[in-house]
Each structure stands twice: as C-alpha cells, then as structure tokens.
Amino acid sequence: MFSIGIDFGGTKILIGIINQDGEIIKSIKRNVPRTKHIDEIIELTSATIEDLFSDSKISLSNISGIGVAAPGIVDADKGILIYAPNWSIRNFPIKKIFSDKYSMPVKVYNDVNAAAIGELHFGHGREENSFFWITISTGIGGALVINGELLLGNSGLAGEIGHIIIEDNGPLCKCGRKGCLESLASGTAIASLARKKIKNGAVFQKIDPKINIDEITAETVIMAAHADDGEAISLLEEVARNISKALSYVVNLADVDLMVIGGGVMESNGLLFKFIDKNMKRYVYEYDQRNVKLARPALGYNSSLVGAGALILKDKNL
C-alpha cells in the first residue's frame, strides 16, 4: 500500500506518493497561489493529487491515507492548522476537508514534526531512536524524539526551540518577545544582522558595496563567508554560538546525543555547521561523558514530504 504525503510550505506545495519503504514513487511541486486563499489552496492541492494518480498509474484504492505537513501551529488531534504565519491563515480544517473529499484517514502535523517523523522511520532514526531535529530556515523550529516517540507536549508545542530566549532585550522576534533564538540565528536574522553591521560601518569585503542593503539575504552572507570574508565569518560565528547554546539546553535537559540540523540556511553551509559543532563542546554539561553528534537530514529536502507519508504508513492504529 501507499500513502499520499503533502508538504505545505510557505511558498510551495509538494505532494507525493510514498511507499512502505519511505520511497517517493512520484511527486509534483506547485507554487502556493499568490492570494494564499484557503479555497484556492484546496483546489490546487486536489488538482495536483489527481495529476499524481494520472502520472503514476496508482489508483485511489491503493492509498491508505493522506498525511499533511503544515507550516505553522497545528492541532494534531483535530487536524486543524491553527495559524500559518506565512499564509496569514487561521483555523484551516485540513483533516475534515480532505477526509470528506477522499473518504480516507487524514493526519496533520506541523511541518517540523513531520520531518522528524520521516527521519525517525526512514533516516537517522533507524540507527538512533532518540534525537532532536532543528530546522534553520526563514524561521527556526524543532522536534524532540525520545525512544522512538515524537513528543508533542500538552499543547502540541514541544520542541519550539526557535522561541527559547537566548539574549534578554535582544532583537524583537515575530512572536512579540525579544531575544528569541529565531531573532538571532534564522535566515531572516542573519540578513538583518548583516544590514545592521553595514549601517554601523562594517565592511564585508566579499559583498558588492553597490548592492542595495535591503537586497542582502542570508545566502549573500553565507557565500561571502565561504569566500573568506572576515566580517561574514565573524557573523556566522556569532550565529553559531547562539544555536549551540540553544542545542546545549536540549542535550542537558533531555540527554539526547544526536542533533539533526536541517533547513535552507544549512544547505551548502559547511562553515556554520563546523562552528556549531565546535561550540557544543563549550556549552554542553559533561560533554566528554556524552557522545554528542551533529548530522544533516538523511532525507534532505524531502524530509517533511516523506514524514507526512509516514504519518499514515507508520500509524499502528490504521
């Protein structure tokens, strides 16, 4: 049997047919409608599912259910996307809509939690069943897996490492508080830090001085750092210290050794990975008595998609 995995991203919708081994039989990627209206998202998702059936020659009768990785706060029990910041959508009843339409089980998880589920069943989790997943992208999210179980917590908010306060009176976070990890180390934060440094007179040797300061992105800074720009390297070291500090809290509290670090900021970013690893030794209690390891996602870009499929395929109650 197969499942349908749906990865709703901030700007993309990735849908695939997943088999029992976590392999993607066929996938299709679409852009989120510019209006980001619920009705248009539903229509596009349904049309893409039909295209998948047509292209793969797999029929609806071979599908066990639909798993959805959603970009925001999710009520997993009710299958509702409570709030999607990048879509400005609230209370999207994903489970009801697609279970009514396709008459099959539907499960909905936050996208980071879904990625961790994929990693648990089809990635690093096959060798180590306790780990912490952190996504460093436009924002920062996390998921904690202990003894083969994803911990959701009382409100489904377990693992929200992006909103651990690292620096009192630090930069304002989109959550409304100051000094959250996300405000200090996300892709958005890296770009913001670089712009602030330039405004204060810092010179990035490998960033074109003629560039519009508002066009500087995290990728701009990362490329400069890999080109041996001292200012960019210093900025990434600062970011790494904050990430390492937050990860050390997880290690010290939950006693897990494996940190799986994914997200767009980490792609082709060996320097930041190295700096995080170096700083873990500084912040983790009794580091030499542990076996702390950093790893990149085994499933790469498709972690959330495969994880969404696994929500159905690995559910013992279905």
TrEMBL record:
The coiled-coil regions, if any, are none
What domain of life is recorded for the organism? Bacteria
Membrane-crossing ranges are none
Entry-linked Gene3D superfamilies: 3.30.420.40
State the InterPro entries in the record. ATPase_NBD (IPR043129), ROK (IPR000600), ROK_cs (IPR049874)
PROSITE patterns from the UniProt entry:
ROK
Q: Belongs to which family?
A: Belongs to the ROK (NagC/XylR) family.
Quote the PANTHER family the UniProt record gives. BIFUNCTIONAL UDP-N-ACETYLGLUCOSAMINE 2-EPIMERASE_N-ACETYLMANNOSAMINE KINASE (PTHR18964:SF149), ROK (REPRESSOR, ORF, KINASE) FAMILY (PTHR18964)
The protein's name in its UniProt record: Glucokinase
- Species: Candidatus Schekmanbacteria bacterium GWA2_38_11
